[in-house]
Specification:
alpha/beta; seven-stranded mixed β-sheet; six-stranded mixed β-sheet; binds heme C; 457 residues; disordered N terminus
């Protein structure tokens, strides 16, 4: 196994943790059919009774996506939310994770998956139903993972992921719910899984009959996670006979809505999970489902266990030195000399820069140990991904130097050749100040805070 550090797994039943104080917070986000609350550890009203919790579609965000406030979601906040539930609610509730914990392949995504699975184990989730994106790490990763987990932890469920004719994951689980028992299963639409390993997602699901059997045995409820469009999910429900065999049905899909969304009609009700794990969806009853959303807002009251899981994730990034493995393709057009050297002739610009956040961008990462994470480093250094630019071995040049914008300046400094960056328009900033990481960015507002020009002669 390639696993480097092994954390002692926390198969603690967090779902029976102690109660936090309650004070109500934000209201409806959209005026739709659902209520939205600040679902942070100890903040905001908790659900009043045991019910059904849905998480997932994290899209590779074990911590919040984005650098600016408000930062929403992530493992620390989510575990804090579940830890703060009153015991009366957590006992007897069903927690299901819908697929797409990650959104691409690669070693960093594998490390994320391991972290997410440890979270689910600690939360006592009834099942993680795989989505097509979860398969992007390839079948070998999952075979290793299944072998290492054995019968422990959250069951990994999919009725139609096969390798050489054998089903890889469990076809379904039967779980206790506040209303009796539910069969929880997952299905991946083969027509929307084109980029996964060929043959992994089967057209025909060999074990659907078993799942139908489990439903009929006691006329159980069905929670079907379908990695599919709403239309295809409904089609599958009909064609497979699962819908008919169940007492009450809830269809869950990753969906395209930013926030969890419940569509009560046409029946059966269908839940979209929302994006990037920023919210928890709660439904009190499958008989007459009404959605409540909990925004995962407050990190200060987050979970200690969650924090140690993230710590473990960063340790693994560092131990495997993923930063050093980022491919560097193009060569920088000249050598980098650093802001101080530019300051010899551009004293005022240097002063402005030294006072700006750009001069401290690396420290901002170091504060939490994120300087080992390639996904963070790329915007907090100069010349990332360029031969001659940021070098993980020496960690230079760090910060957003003059040359992150104007291009490497050795030739300019030596011979007054024009700087390679040329004239920079406002759009240039967007490569780092993107919607996720700098949602309030407007050139008119941000430029004045770093405005500089040629010194008067
Ligand atoms: C290479 C990536 C990158 C580029 C390009 C970039 N920025 Fe930034 N910027 C950052 C990072 C990272 C921070 C946060 C640094 C910190 O505070 O630790 C930041 C912070 C800022 C801040 C807030 C900090 C302060 O000093 O007040 C302003 C303003 C800003 N950038 C303006 C701009 C403008 C205007 C542009 C385009 C001309 C630009 N940035 C281009 C990465 C970039
Ligand atoms: C796409 C570029 C980009 C990526 C990727 C990125 N950042 Fe940032 N980061 C920025 C920008 C731009 C800002 C400034 C945002 C603003 O003030 O509007 C910033 C600001 C920050 C700040 C706040 C600094 C301060 O002093 O307020 C922290 C902390 C931070 N980033 C950490 C991270 C971490 C951790 C990651 C990886 C999970 C990350 N960043 C990934 C561009 C990025
Ligand atoms: C030895 C002195 C010197 C150094 C060092 C120097 N510059 Fe300049 N720079 C100048 C002078 C003089 C001009 C005025 C341009 C001209 O009229 O040729 C200039 C012009 C510029 C311009 C506007 C014209 C253009 O080429 O885009 C930028 C941008 C610039 N410098 C950025 C930088 C950066 C970034 C660095 C550090 C990598 C740097 N300079 C280092 C002397 C210097
Ligand atoms: C975040 C990006 C960014 C950083 C960092 C930055 N600049 Fe600039 N700089 C700009 C932009 C944008 C302009 C104005 C538009 C242009 O001339 O391209 C500018 C303008 C200039 C000019 C005047 C150019 C002219 O033709 O009038 C000089 C000189 C200059 N910068 C030097 C520097 C030096 C030296 C540093 C570091 C101490 C630095 N800049 C850091 C983005 C940046």
């Amino acid at each position: 196994m390639r696993r480097v550090v092994v954390l002692f797994v926390l198969v603690a039943a967090v779902l029976t943790a102690a109660c936090g104080p309650s004070e109500s917070s934000t209201g409806n986000e959209d005026g739709g059919d659902a209520t939205e609350k600040a679902g942070t550890a100890g903040v905001g009203p908790s659900p009043r009774a045991p019910g059904y919790f849905f998480i997932g579609n994290d899209m590779g965000m074990p911590r919040p996506c984005g650098c600016s406030k408000p930062a929403l979601g992530g493992i620390v906040r989510r575990m804090g939310f579940f830890e703060s539930l009153p015991e009366g609610v957590s006992k007897g509730s069903l927690l299901v994770s819908g697929g797409n914990l990650i959104h691409e392949g690669g070693r960093q995504q594998e490390l994320k998956l391991e972290t997410f699975l440890q979270e689910l184990d600690a939360l006592g989730a009834a099942a993680h139903c795989l989505g097509a994106d979860d398969l992007q790490v390839g079948s070998f990763f999952w075979e290793d993972t299944l072998a290492a987990r054995g019968e422990d932890g959250t069951p990994l469920v999919s009725v139609n992921v096969t390798k050489e004719g054998h089903r890889l994951f469990r076809s379904h689980v039967v779980a206790a719910t506040p209303e009796g028992e539910a069969v929880v299963t997952g299905w991946i639409d083969p027509t929307s899984a084109g980029w996964t390993e060929p043959g992994l997602v089967a057209e025909e699901s060999p074990d659907v009959a078993d799942v139908v059997g489990a439903l009929q045995e006691k006329r159980r409820d069905l929670v079907l996670f379908a990695a599919a469009s709403a239309e295809r999910a409904r089609e599958f429900l009909e064609r497979s006979g699962l819908g008919k065999a169940a007492r009450h049905v809830l269809l869950v899909i990753p969906g395209i809505s930013d926030i969890p969304w419940l569509h009560p009609s046409p029946p059966p009700p269908l839940l979209e999970l929302g994006l990037k794990g920023q919210r928890v969806a709660y439904i009190g009853s499958l008989k007459a489902p009404v959605l409540e959303r909990f925004v995962l807002l407050d990190a200060d009251r987050g979970s200690e266990t969650g924090r140690s899981l993230l710590e473990f994730y960063r340790e693994n990034l560092a131990a495997e030195d993923l930063l050093a493995q980022v491919p560097r393709f193009e060569s920088a057009p000249a050598a980098y000399i650093g802001s101080k050297a530019c300051g010899a002739c551009h004293a005022t610009a240097l002063k402005v820069w030294e006072r700006s956040g750009h001069a401290h961008a690396w420290e901002a990462l170091e504060a939490k140990g994120d300087e080992v994470d390639p996904e963070c480093v790329r915007c907090h250094v100069t010349g990332f991904g360029l031969i001659g630019g940021f070098d993980p071995a020496s960690s230079a040049p760090v910060n957003v130097q003059c040359e992150a914008c104007h291009g490497p300046g050795a030739e300019h400094a030596a011979s007054r050749a024009p700087t390679p960056g040329g004239t920079l328009g406002g759009d240039f900033c967007l490569q780092c100040h993107d919607v996720a990481n700098s949602p309030h960015f407007k050139f008119e507002d941000y430029w004045p805070r770093i405005a500089h020009a040629l010194d008067d002669k």
